[in-house]
Design brief:
By secondary structure, the protein is of the alpha+beta class. The protein is built from two helices and three strands; from the N terminus they run βαβαβ.
């Protein structure tokens, strides 16, 4: 499992990056979600790595 925290607002980011943040289930800064560790989630994290903090659980 991965613990993903939104640390920077996606407002000034590209539209596809904003959509990726929404797809991860993140809405507000400092919100945390837990997702399974798989290739799909890793790809989404890589796309918005400058906006999120990731920890392994």
């Amino acid at each position: 499992m991965l613990r993903i925290t939104l640390v920077k607002s996606p407002i000034s980011s590209l539209k596809d990056q904003q959509d990726t943040v929404k797809a991860l289930g993140l809405r507000k800064v400092n919100q945390t979600v837990e997702k399974p560790d798989n290739a799909c989630i890793r790809g989404q994290i890589f796309k918005v790595k400058h906006l999120v903090k990731v920890e392994e659980v």
